[in-house]
Amino acid sequence: MSKIPTLALLASDTPRAQEAAEALRGEMNFVPLEQAEMAVVLGGDGQMLHALHEMLDAGHVIPAYGINYGTVGFMMNKPKSSRPLEERIMRAKRLTITPLAMTATLGSGEQETRLAINEVSLLRETRQTARLEVAVNGKVRMAELFCDGVLVATPAGSTAYNLSANGPILPLTSALVALTPISPFRPRRWRGAILPDHYEITFRVLDPLKRPVAAVADQKELRDILEVQVRVARDQQLTLLFDPGKTLEERIFAEQFQV
Per-residue confidence at 159, pLDDT binned at 50, 70, 90? Predict the structure, then answer.
């Protein structure tokens, strides 16, 4: 990268992020997102997900450099550095991540498609457990799964909700997705599966009236679902920027050794 690109500034509403944004505006020039070549994102992982979805919705996907003013900050860089922001961006390493595409059939028969960077999850809407059929590449692999829900996680999202549901951590370059049940009731001992990311996974809701199910792509929810198909959206790749030696890949790898 020979010159600093035009930058957009996307900050969360928290006081820390807003204070940092105000300071940066006094030091650098920023343009609206639709005119930018890169985005600087201030906040936590939730803000980064929001920013990436904003890009996808607008059809203007550009590399994003995150600075952590949240809590965990898996997708973000450290806020403090001896180097100015321009130099950090110029030195940053690129990392490509690929979201999931969720196509949900609603009770009305209509279909809605949503993208998920971390995971697609199906969740029961009432106190009744969900009753689902699980198929992979058109072949039914589980005729009945009684559970609070089930999710499909990308490697980038495998340390989020998936890990909390006792799912596996996936190396970022693994070309895999995690299929993880949430509080399975029957079969009780099923712990999920690890699948190649070119497989398509289909969930069919077997009792949608008595046991209604919602489908969630990251934070976007659709209710009263009949069927959900999940695949990797290879035509919607995203780029994150990290300081050298601080990549998401290294953080996910290190997470496997946390006790």
Answer: very high
The CATH homologous superfamily to which domain 7-98+237-255 belongs is Probable inorganic polyphosphate/atp-NAD kinase; domain 1 (3.40.50.10330)
> Of the listed 13, 45, 57, 197, which one is catalytic?
45
d(CA 108, CA 157): 30
Residue 1 has pLDDT above 60, yes or no: no
By C-alpha distance, which of 163, 128, 135 is closest to 149?
128
**Using one digit for the tens of pLDDT, what is the confidence trace for 79-109?**
988 889 999 999 999 999 999 999 999 999 9
- Note the pTM of the prediction, 2 decimals: 0.91
Annotation says 57 is catalytic: no
**pLDDT for the residue numbered 255:** 82
Class of domain 100-232: mainly beta
Arithmetic mean of pLDDT, 186-204: 95
Computed over every residue of the chain, the mean pLDDT equals 94
